[in-house]
Structure formats: C-alpha cells, structure tokens
Amino acid sequence: MAVTLAKVAVLVGLLAELERDAVGFLPSSTPIRMSKMMPSLDCKVLPRIGRPVYASPSDEDEEDEPLSDDAFMSLIQFETRCGRLDRAEESWQQYVEQKPSASTYVKYAQWAESDANNLPLAAKVYQEMTKKLG
After folding, report:
1. How do strand 52-55 and strand 65-66 relate by DSSP bridges?
2. Cα Rg for the chain, rounded, in angstroms?
3. Which runs of consecutive H residues, i.e. helices, occur in the chain?
4. Whole-angstrom Cα distance, residue 123 to residue 60?
5. Which terminus of the chain is less hemmed in, N or C, by CB atoms within 10 Å?
6. How far is residue 123's CA from residue 113's CA, in Å, rounded to a whole number?
7. What's the pTM?
8. pLDDT tens digits, the chain, 134 residues: what are they?
9. What does 34-67 look like in DSSP terms, one character per residue?
C-alpha cells in the first residue's frame, strides 16, 4: 500500500477528527486545519463532503512511498482503540507484507494474543512466519 504525503496528511486529519468526535471535544462539523501544523500543505474544503482536503503541489510529481513503521503502528493502535479489530488485522497483514521480518511477525502475534484476544490468529501468524522466513 503506497501513499503520498498528501494522502498521509488526509489520514492524519481524518483520524484526529474521528478521535475528537469520539471523545466529544469538538462537534463533527468543525473542520480541522492541518495547515497550522503543516504549513507547506494547502488546505481546501470539498463542497460535496465538507471535509478538509490537503494537497501539496510537489506530491503529484513524487512516486508513492510505502507507509512508515510508525504510521502503520499508529493506524493499528487507533483501529484497536476504536474496537475495529478487523481493520486493525488488515493493517497488520499489510504491514507484514511490506516488512516481512521476524520482529514484525512477533509484534503481530503478540497483538493478536493480547489486544485482540485471538489465540488462533496468533498461532496462524507464528505458522506463517515459519513458512515465509524459514
């Protein structure tokens, strides 16, 4: 899964908006202005959905880059906190595909065992690790 800086900024903005709405600090109609935190990004609001969209002119020229380890972990932690374990599991699978290392598989299995309370998934992850990494 490859994304540009603009796509990551959109995800960060939407995640921040979702977290604030879930806690109730801000009404859902309040737009989030990432331009103050990231001044190099231009902020405009789409009329159809009414959410801020962030674009950087230089992002169109760059190739899509994979998400960093920190971005994957933030997304996984967010989905787990929101109780969307199926989405968190999909993110783990994408993370393991992007970075197939023993430490990644072990983190995934530990998450499945402790946070998701899914022992069969943890066993499946360890079996997959032994098949792919030997």
Report:
1. unpaired
2. 17
3. 5-23, 69-81, 85-98, 102-114, 119-133
4. 42
5. C
6. 9
7. 0.54
8. 455 666 766 677 766 666 665 554 444 454 444 444 444 444 444 444 445 555 555 545 455 677 788 888 999 999 999 999 999 999 999 999 999 999 999 999 999 999 999 999 999 999 999 999 88
9. GGGT-TTSEEEE-TTT--EEEE-GGGGTSPPEEP
Cα distance between residue 10 and residue 62, in whole Å: 17
Q: How far is CA 10 from its chain centroid?
A: 11
SS3 (DSSP) at 3: strand
Question: Measuring CA to CA, how many Å separate 72 from each of 36, 62, 94, 119, 120?
Answer: 24, 21, 9, 22, 23
| Straight-line distance from the first to the last Cα atom of the chain, in angstroms, rounded to the nearest whole number | 25
Q: Give the Cα separation of 68 and 53 in Å (integer).
A: 21
